[in-house]
Amino acid sequence: MPKGLDIGTMNIVSAKPKDGQIDLTKQRNLFVEVEYSDIAEKMLSRSNVLYIKNGKKVYIVGEDALNFANIFNKETRRPMNAGILSRKEKDAIPMIRLIVERVVGAPHKKGEHVYFTCPAKPVDAPIDTLYHQKTLEAILHNMGYNAHAINEGMAVVYSELADSSFTGLGVSFGAGMTNACLSYYAVPVTQFSVARGGDWIDNSVAQATGTPVDRVTAAKERDFRLDASSHLGELQGALAVYYDNLLEYVVRGLERQTRDAKVQEDLEIPCVITGGTAAPKGFRQAFEAKLREADLPFRVKSVSEARHPLYSVARGALVAAQAEEGDHHHKDSKK
User: Fold this and answer.
1) Of 55, 77, 99, which marks where a domain is finished?
2) Interatomic CA distance for residues 139 and 120, integer angstroms
3) What is the number of helices (H) and of strands (E) in the chain?
């Protein structure tokens, strides 16, 4: 059974076929450390809480980490930072392994195909994504999977642009990075990432206004709207400033990366956006306006939002896995 896996800085989502539908599973990509006690371990072992015991420490992982963090007044920690495994978090690998195992489950048979998302090497930061990719491949291989990496932007194309023969621009605005892919009939013409996303906005606004990051994030997710009504000097106004800067930054990167791309003359393509950072009202309209002003070697026919933003990347990874399995069966039948 083929599977798709979206490994994001904030969430890890799996997609697999089930009874003619797509079964989706999500876990928060975070954990919290709590003190060990015999009573606590007994309670946890009898529950469905995801945890790891290490000496005198117990790590609560995934969705439950938020609840435990509130109860014990602790800060949650993330296995990933800026779109890849965190170099500052020594427990990153065992934590992300546990979340991946819970989300994707064991293969029905050894060698089952799974496509997992991996960011493209950023064009604006000295971040190497190879170690991140190979570590995730090893985790999935040890689980019994035949693992393949796919760019988030390409996964968006697979998920949302079947009606245009997988030709178009897919952009995933994540927490750690923003990934983009220009595809022509399912062949990536160019794909890249920039090391800015939702976390960059939150941290920038926090520094500019002296507001705690958690409060900035909560305000952004609760009622922020990207439009001209945001007032300077207020938190909403600061969010608007940095959102506008992010969009400008991504479009400038797109201009540079597509300048030498070999695209068909007079090509008119659709664009689809997804990701938690693209969730605020007014985001699509603001990004579309930036794209239409940009110096690009193609025309943008439309900008639309993914049907299910939280799950679209995992769905696209599943489409790629299904195509891989279909090719594999086709090759076997010729033998």
Assistant:
1) 77
2) 20
3) 10, 15
Task: Decide: 271 and 309 in contact? Cβ < 8 Å.
Answer: no
Residue whose C-alpha is closest to residue 316's, from 84, 1, 27, 5: 5
Distances (CA, A) of 267 to 151, 167, 170, 188: 23, 10, 16, 15
CB atoms within 10 A of CB 221: 13
The total number of structural domains that make up the chain = 2
One DSSP character per residue, 111-140 reads TEEEEEE-PPPBSSS----HHHHHHHHHHH
**190 is a domain residue:** yes
**What would the 3-class secondary structure string for 235-288 be?**
HHHHHHHHHHHHHHHHHHHHHHHHCCCCCCCCCEEEEEEECHHHCCECHHHHHH
CA dist 324 and 329 (Å) reads 9
Range of the domain at 242: 155-305
Q: What letter represents residue 122's amino acid?
A: P
Output the DSSP codes for 7-51: E-SSEEEEEEEETTEEEEEEEES-EEEEE--HHHHHHHHTS---E
Across the chain, which has 335 residues, the per-10-residue mean pLDDT values are: 92 92 92 74 72 78 80 82 87 90 92 94 88 96 96 94 94 92 92 92 93 85 77 80 96 90 80 92 94 92 91 95 71 46
Closest CA to 158 of 59, 286, 18, 306: 306
Distance CA 84, CA 93 (A): 11
Q: Which are the contacts of 134, defined by CB distance < 8 A and separation ≥ 6?
A: none
Q: How far apart are CA 281 and CA 288, in angstroms?
A: 13
Domain boundary among 11, 42, 77: 77
